Amino acid sequence: MTTATAPLIGRTRARGVETLSLDAPATRNALSSALVGALAGALADCAEDSGVRAVVLTHTGGTFCAGADLRDPPHPDAFVGLLRRIVALPKPVVARVTGHVRAGGLGLLAACDVTAAATASTFAFTEVRIGVAPAVISLPLLPRTDPRAVARYYLTGERFDAPEAARIGLLTAAGDDVDAVLAPVLEGLRRSAPQALAETKRLLTARVLEAFDRDAADLTALSARLFSTAEAREGMTAFLERRDPAWAL
């Protein structure tokens, strides 16, 4: 007798808005190969479904996404494909965050068209603290955010809050009630013509897709190389063992 595997992506629909929920709270919605594949498949369904006007990407549990699953990380090519699918989807993708976001999860936010988070949410590019770099997520992130602020947070791995995330361009807006923040956005999308939305999104994402076309191969190779180094192995082992890595001063 086999046990059914719980779905990793929850799906609901209301008035043309499809809500996709990262639903692996036991791993803080870490980006495993299975979760990345399931989300990519759900987005592909939305792209083909004429009944979907827009997509909301949200989560269960207190963390939107903890970054890569260090026990079952996705192949860099698969993660690049997921980020590009969000950017190129012919329908707006809206991120709804009521928890914390780390590392690769910030790439998901950067790929979305509109992003909103609760004021209590926190954010951090933690890659440098485990011996790697925020390589692949730079594809959607660097064209959309303040370069000076991103330099600080990339290099230090320090945590920042939702108002700061909005200031630097990672978020569209932050507020105590994220659903109230998003209500006029979703209403506006429901009143917009599907073809007009698709073409307008194409205008808005042209520069981001240029970054994918130009840099994806090099950044994917960089990510794969860094994850195979001794420094990364020490950093990931230290993280899993809840201790400081050998290089910490």
Automatic annotation (TrEMBL):
Transmembrane segments: none annotated. Keywords: Lyase. Belongs to the enoyl-CoA hydratase/isomerase family. Its EC number is 4.2.1.17. It comes from Streptomyces achromogenes. GO terms for molecular function: enoyl-CoA hydratase activity. Coiled coil: none annotated. This is Enoyl-CoA hydratase. Gene3D superfamilies: 2-enoyl-CoA Hydratase, Chain A, domain 1 (3.90.226.10), Lyase 2-enoyl-coa Hydratase, Chain A, domain 2 (1.10.12.10). CDD domains: crotonase-like. NCBIfam families: PRK07827.1. SUPFAM superfamilies: ClpP/crotonase. Signal peptide: none annotated. The keyword rRNA processing does not apply.
